[in-house]
Amino acid sequence: MQAVLLGPPGAGKGTQAERLCQAHSLLHLSTGDLLRGAVTAGTDLGVEAKGFMDRGELVPDSLVLALLEERLAKKTSDEGFLLDGFPRNVSQAEALAAKIGDDTIDHVVYLKLDDDQILQRLLKRGRKDDTEEVILNRLSVYRAETEPLVAYYRERGLIRDVDALGTVEEVHKRLLDSITTGGAASC
Ligand code: ADP
């Protein structure tokens, strides 16, 4: 299976991606994690990416694509994967389609959460880039750049809507249902 996990910051993409990858033996590909790894390792790419991340802006596509390509090159050909935090805009989605082929994505799971909940969760999380100002910036970048992907993938019949409100277990179950029943579950 090749799938994408889409949703606003704070929707629980990272947590749910890990659980789903364990349940389905998928490779979890998080561009946020890859970028944080590059920052910690102090690579040139990490140094360049850091300022964008600290401000809650998107890291330029060329850097993210380079990191992702490097990681994809290491995976075995039959290994399924779940993308978490990528694509983040339409041009990344187009680059992904060009790289892995147009029809090779099985599902795009859209984790839905309203703004109040997003803010509450992110303020509680306390990651270094989770200050109120940076969170608000990430949210507006999400609305402008990433949310259009919901329509992009809906047009292609790939979107599965999943309500992100609830316990980790409840959301995990909904997510599993949404990708095993095949139909787009509404919420
Ligand atoms: P969250 O979804 O909670 O915002 P992530 O870990 O996915 O957290 O991303 C953290 C930061 O890393 C983002 O704010 C952004 O700066 C950068 N980033 C992650 N993935 C991408 C991507 N696909 N394109 C551009 N920037 C990205």
Describe this structure in words.
α1 (13-24) packs across α9 (168-180) and α2 (31-41) crosses α3. A five-stranded parallel sheet has the order 2-3-1-4-5, with helices on both faces. The chain is globular, with a radius of gyration of 16 Å. With 187 residues, the protein is an alpha/beta fold. It is built from nine helices and five strands, in the order βαβαααβαβαααβα. The chain has helices spanning 13-24, 31-41, 44-55, 61-74, 90-100, 115-125, 132-146, 148-155, 168-180, and strands spanning 2-6, 27-30, 81-84, 107-112, 159-163. The structure holds adenosine-5'-diphosphate. Residues 9, 13, 31-32, 35, 52-53, 56-59, 64, 85-86, 88, 92, 138 line the site of adenosine-5'-diphosphate. Adenosine-5'-diphosphate (ADP) binds at residues 9, 13, 31-32, 35, 52-53, 56-59, 64, 85-86, 88, 92, 138.
